[in-house]
């Protein structure tokens, strides 16, 4: 098994993602980190964290890639993210909703291995502010 390297940038990025209630985009992470590391380093760290099973990627309805913490079931071999992602049309946040799992019925001879659902609407924070 490949050795896991922990750098200061990796630790800070993982702390940001783990402490966030919503998925973070590369630019969100870059803004919060300030001058700690450059954008290329952030891309490399995010890829490494995804490969290690620490974070998963979500592509929102605008095509922006966001990253969220993985549940404890993920590993470097396989991710388990068969849940709904909610994309707020007002604040553009992306939230993992673990307890809303849609039922899928496929035609014969189709085997689902993973899926990615994105629901668009208005999040509770924006609903309250309206």
From TrEMBL:
SUPFAM superfamilies: Winged helix' DNA-binding domain (SSF46785)
Cofactor: Zn(2+)
Key words, A-Z: Metal-binding, Zinc
Protein name stated in the entry: Fur family transcriptional regulator, ferric uptake regulator
Positions of Zn(2+) binding: 88, 91, 123, 126
Domain of life: Bacteria
GO molecular function terms attached to this record: DNA-binding transcription factor activity; metal ion binding
UniProt key word Repressor: no
Cofactor note: Binds 1 zinc ion per subunit.
A Pfam cross-reference name: FUR
